[in-house]
Amino acid sequence: MKLVEVVKKIKETLPLELVADQDNVGLIIGDYDDECGTTIAAYELNNGVIEEAVGSGSNLVVTYHTPLYRTTKSFTSSRLRPDPLFTAARSRINVFAVHTALDIPMNGLNFDLAARLGLKNVEMLSPLPATLNKIVVFVPLDHLEKVRAAMWRNGAGKIGKYADCSFAVEGEGSFLPGEGSSPYIGSPGKPEQASESRLEVVAEKAILGQVIEAMLKAHPYEEVAYDIYPLQNDSPNYGFGAIGELAEAQEVTRFLDRVKKVLVIPSIRLSHLPDSKVRKVALCAGSGMPFFKYAVRDGADIFITGDVKHHDFREARSGRTILADATHRGTERFAAELLQGILKRTFEDRVVVNLSKQEHDTAVNY
Ligand SMILES: [Zn+2]
């Protein structure tokens, strides 16, 4: 598969358009004409990952963390301090980063972590605002099913855990076909009235183009009347963090033991360790402190994230919600594995997706 197609496929699968400007995601290094047969899914780019790629004959690495921030003005390299991006470019390795595009979907990093920790009834902790559009299209009755199905097939009509959502009501459309037109109903120069359905379907902004294209293709009219309304609703499909419940309340220490085991970390730092039980659990992988306030608002018994600072712990001590630092890397431990699974489904055997074997702990313990 050509890299240009690989990029298109990833963008259709993960919501790169919804990622904040300061998060540098997408194709970081790449030659769109390259043929990609094998790729490596990795937590982040380092020289070991580049060696893996070269050694396995792969010319594409898809990373979770972005290896290039917008503030980077240059990248240079030497034998003593080899720069992974420089080496990748020299070795003709293409690099694509997904970062928060992997965090925010319902099948993303936070919902994956919630499932691994045994949470049920999981919802977005902080939904993104205004990611949806409403498409309203006027369809002759005999084409309602065809048009609606085409929009659904292209990803429209998804509201949280529900798919194929729509609303339709019958009415009367009127039009006067102009000279040179070839109307589906009526004839040029003759005023026409037709029974039509007003079909309403929501679609995420990220897939609007493909939904409109499919709708127009399935619609029999020469000139299709349709409206696109941006919605202010919180997104039911994308957001930061996750909140859910354990099947039953359990001792804090028992739950923390499970977290340590799942995330393979020796310890967890806590704001306080009350002698109580936990049931409602909120989390945000990586550096999730900006979302702690939503965990408190929603009455979570515990909030799990990484990169918690001294003063964050101090402030949290006076509250009910336990603030838990399970480390940045620990909470993102399964990022590459999740990415591999998503890419495998996306490429459907057309590109082999291997998982990087590199260990990625940034700091060294002594
Ligand atoms: Zn991270």
List keywords for this structure.
366 residues, alpha/beta, Udp-n-acetylmuramoylalanyl-d-glutamate--2,6- Diaminopimelate Ligase, Chain: A, domain 1, Alpha-Beta Plaits, 3 domains, 6-stranded mixed beta sheet, 5-stranded mixed beta sheet, 15 strands, binds zinc ion
Characterization of the model:
The protein is of the alpha/beta class and 366 residues long. It folds into three domains: 120 residues, Udp-n-acetylmuramoylalanyl-d-glutamate--2,6- Diaminopimelate Ligase, Chain: A, domain 1; 109 residues, NIF3 (NGG1p interacting factor 3)-like (Udp-n-acetylmuramoylalanyl-d-glutamate--2,6- Diaminopimelate Ligase, Chain: A, domain 1); 101 residues, Alpha-Beta Plaits (2-Layer Sandwich), CATH 3.30.70. 28% of the residues lie in helices and 28% in strands. It has twelve helices and 15 strands. Strands 5-10-12-13-14-11 form a six-stranded mixed β-sheet. Strands 1-4-3-2-15 form a five-stranded mixed β-sheet, with helices on both faces. It is flat, with a radius of gyration of 25 Å. It binds zinc ion. The site of zinc ion (ZN) has 4 residues, from loops.
